[in-house]
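Incident log, support desk, overnight shift.

02:14 A customer reports that sequence design results differ from what the structure should imply. Their input is reproduced verbatim below. On-call engineer (initials T.W.) acknowledged and began investigating.
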C-alpha cells in the first residue's frame, strides 16, 4: 500500500467519525424526547394527587413513585446531554507539534497567522508525518466516541429504569380511582 493510499484510508476514517458523532447525537435526541414524555406524564400524575381526595397511603405511594421516576429521568437527561456535549476538548500533542494542528480545527485557526503560513507549514510536512498526525487525531476521536457512546448507554439505562416506577405510579393512580 502506498503512502497516498494510507493517507486516503486515514482521511476516510476521520470523515467516518462525523457519521458516528451524528449517530450518537440522534440517539441522544431520542432519549431526551422519551425523557420529556415521561416527565410530562409523571408531572400529570403528580398533579392528579393534589386534585382529588385519595387514601393517604396511596397518595404517598403515588408521590414517591413519581419522585423516583423524575429523579431517574433527570439522570437520564444529564447523561444524554453529556454524551453529545463533551466538556473535555482533546488537545493532546497539539502544543508539542505544529504539524498536528492540521487535524485540530481550533488549533489550526489559532496557530497560524494567515493562509500563507498555514500553506508553507503544510508543504514542509511529509506524507509519513501527515499519516502519523492523522492517526493520532483519529485515535483521540475514537476514544472520545467510545466515551460518548458509553455515556449514552447510561442515559438509556436510567430511562429504562424510570419506566418501572412510572408504571407503578400509573397503577397506583388507577387504584386510587377504586378507593
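02:41 Re-run completed on a clean worker. Output:
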Amino acid at each position: 500500500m502506498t503512502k497516498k493510499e494510507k493517507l486516503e484510508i486515514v482521511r476516510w476514517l476521520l470523515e467516518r467519525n462525523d457519521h458516528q458523532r451524528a449517530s450518537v447525537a440522534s440517539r441522544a435526541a431520542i432519549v431526551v424526547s422519551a425523557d420529556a414524555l415521561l416527565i410530562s406524564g409523571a408531572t400529570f400524575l403528580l398533579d392528579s394527587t393534589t386534585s382529588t381526595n385519595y387514601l393517604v397511603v396511596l397518595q404517598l405511594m403515588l408521590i414517591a413513585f413519581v419522585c423516583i421516576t423524575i429523579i431517574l429521568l433527570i439522570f437520564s437527561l444529564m447523561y444524554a446531554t453529556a454524551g453529545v456535549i463533551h466538556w473535555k476538548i482533546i488537545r493532546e500533542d497539539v502544543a508539542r507539534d505544529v504539524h498536528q494542528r492540521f487535524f485540530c480545527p481550533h488549533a489550526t485557526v489559532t496557530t497560524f497567522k494567515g493562509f500563507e503560513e498555514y500553506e508553507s507549514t503544510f508543504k514542509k510536512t511529509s506524507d509519513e508525518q501527515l499519516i502519523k498526525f492523522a492517526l493520532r487525531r483519529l485515535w483521540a476521536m475514537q476514544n472520545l466516541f467510545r466515551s460518548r457512546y458509553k455515556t449514552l448507554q447510561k442515559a438509556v439505562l436510567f430511562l429504562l429504569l424510570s419506566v418501572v416506577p412510572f408504571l407503578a405510579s400509573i397503577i397506583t393512580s388507577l387504584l386510587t380511582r377504586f378507593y
